[in-house]
Amino acid sequence: MDLTTNHFLFVSAALFVIGMMGVLTRRNILIIFMCVEMMVAAVGITLVAFSHETATINGQVFFLFALAVAAAESAVGLAIVVALSRQGRAPDVEEMQTLKN
Amino acid sequence: MADLLYLIPLLPLVAFVINILWGRSTIRGNAHWIAIPAAVGSWVLSIITFREIYTDHHAISQRLFTWIPAGDFNIVVSLYADQLTAVMLLVVTSIGMLVCIYSVGYMHGEDGYYRFYSYIPLFIFSMLMLVLADNLLTLFIFWEAVGLCSYLLIGYYFRRRSAGNAAKKAFIVNRVGDLAFGIGIMLTYWTFDSIYFHGEDGILEKAYHFADYGISEGTIMAIGILLFIGACGKSAQFPLHIWLPDAMEGPTPVSALIHAATMVTAGIYMSARSYTIFIGSENAMLFVAVIGSITAFMAASIALTQHDIKKVVAYSTVSQLGYMAFALGTGAWVAAIFHLMTHAFFKGLLFLGSGSVIHGMHGEQDMRKMGGLRKHMPITFWTFLIGSAANAGIFPLAGFWSKDEIIVGAWVSDSHYGKVAAIIGLCAAFLTALYMFRLVFLVFFGEERFDSHVHPHESGPWMAVPLVILAVASIFVGFVGFPPEDGAFHEFLHHAFEHVHGHEVSMTMTYTFGIVSTVVALSGVAVAYITYMRKAINTDELAERFSGIYNFLYNKWYVDEFFMAAVVNPMKDIANFLWKVVDVRIIDGTVNGVGTSIVAISARLRRVQTGSVANYALEIGVGMVVLLGVFLVAFGNLF
């Protein structure tokens, strides 16, 4: 059985849904971050898969940029986590509800 | 002279501008030194104009500027002076000048002296422009301008509530007439395609030959009646006369100039100016004659019962305006203008005379608190007596000639109503003599009924001189109309009414009516003498016995009450309904309802913002899935 683009897409979809469920259900910011990264990676797999399928380089280049942005984003996110722990607050999203109503 | 025509109205306008700009700060008590020279200048120029028209027998006109250039519709403001205008110019400037002089004495030391001497020149300017207008639209503009001046001057003592109310009443009642006048002007333009009076295409010419232009008589009648309703407002004809007696709240010189001699005759002037329209329709003429005769009789009967000296003279004015109107309605155009002119002089005199009485009595206007003033103010007495006799139509004073001519004119007219109008006119003439001499006897004769601390005094020369001049005019001005129907005045004015073919009036008829009206007037005087001098008839007892009639007259035929019940109160009810139901409930309710419902909806919607990141993420996820689903369903065939 050869590996086709569909296989990559299934893996990508599975990863994406797992990541999304993690974001929705977990309360710990660190876990949520990891799940978000997983979703980004899932989208990356799709991009690379289509890039291979259409025999163009665009998808791979695009993913490299996305990866750089994701790295920057996790740096900002981790900085927030550090700032929170310095204040002695738990990294729990349910606690952070100042935007309520 | 034709080039200088514009100076006649310009001089008072300049006086107005100077006084209104610098009167309050610098000129103050010297404001009359601006107004009087301007009025005198206008008067001199008017005389020169009059002489020129008199010798050359043709109208002069001067083009000023194009006011509204709009395609085919061009309104050029030009001054136009024919014989009719020349007479009006003389009347307006003579009375205006004398009132300016008189007011120096009468208004001395009043608050806002400069205001008085600003508005009076503004009025003279507007009135002169009104009579000089060569088309209906400019006439209408200055028609409104004189109304404005009247409003400002009635409300001169604006600190008094009654004065403010009287000013508003005058303005609002005039609006009723002006609405009809405005519609009449539009209908005129629509019918004749022109608003200019004169010339080949002018409305006078077209209205005279209306059948040739395919215009129906009904249209002519509608225009005539609409224009005359406009005249009713300004010239205080029944039932729109109610503002004029109230207008006596203004200073007395204003009453003399505006509410007796000039502005109130604007309606008569305007009707006479557009005379061919009335000639074209018998029904419009009948309407004018009926309204005029009702007014003449009604106002004369009301004047019998009033106690306020100015109110009596005011109702007398309404009555005399009624005479002019029914002269118009019976086709006696020249007689109407003749009466307008003589009336301006003797009624101006009567108002200035009563002003002198009020001034000498320190503001007292109630005739029951006067009496015996003959000895205290001889000049006022003699001039007032002349004015009263002229108003009563006693031979050979001014009022006799013109009033007699109106009655003869009505009698010989083609209209079936003419003879009725003539008889009503004679009845009103009797009443006129009666109320006029009732006033004279009550004010100047008999015992002194005023309080002991009141010391009546004769007025100073500023006031006395105009009185004497007007008295002389009241004696002699009637002779320009001698012999009746064929005098110099008729010869002159005939050119302004070229389409009028007068009736031959036999000498016998002239003399008969002359004698009849003299007898009628003298019997009025006699009744007044018996009643108020000899006290042979107890007036209180008479009022008691005929209390129905007395109250009807004393309450001015209940016309005010009628308007309150028929117009003012329903208007108030409608306004209240619009305010309390439509505005407060419906409009405010809608606006407030929108506000409160948005607040209520928002109060629910804000619960969506939970602040929980997980919820937001779920919403994003669900939204994405829904969007994807929509795209798949909508564009499914693309994949």
Salient structural properties:
heterodimer; A: 101 residues; mainly alpha; Helix Hairpins; 3 helices; B: 639 residues; two-stranded antiparallel ribbon; 25 helices
Description:
The complex is a heterodimer of chains A (101) and B (639). Chain A is mainly α and 101 residues long. Chain A has helices at residues 5-25, 29-54, 58-86. The longest helix of chain A is centred in the last third of the chain and has 29 residues, at 58-86. Chain B has 639 residues and is mainly α. Chain B has four domains: 1-132, no CATH class; 133-554, no CATH class; 555-604; 609-639. A two-stranded antiparallel ribbon of chain B has the order 1-2. In chain B, a hairpin with a 2-residue loop joins strand 1 (60-70) and strand 2. Chain B starts with 6 loop residues before the first helix and ends in a 5-residue tail after the last helix.
The averaged pLDDT of chain A comes out at 88
Strand content of chain A: under 5%
Query: Rg of chain B from C-alpha positions?
Result: 31 Å
- Indicate the low-confidence ranges of chain B by residue numbers: none
Give the amount of beta strand of chain B, in percent: under 5%
Individual helix count of chain A: 3
Low-pLDDT ranges of chain A? none
What gap, in angstroms, lies between the N and C termini of chain B?
A: 97 Å
- CATH topology descriptor of chain A: Helix Hairpins
The structure class of chain A reads: mainly alpha
How many DSSP E strands of chain B?
2
CATH architecture annotation of chain A: Orthogonal Bundle
Most residues in contact, chain pair and counts: A-B, 14 and 11 residues
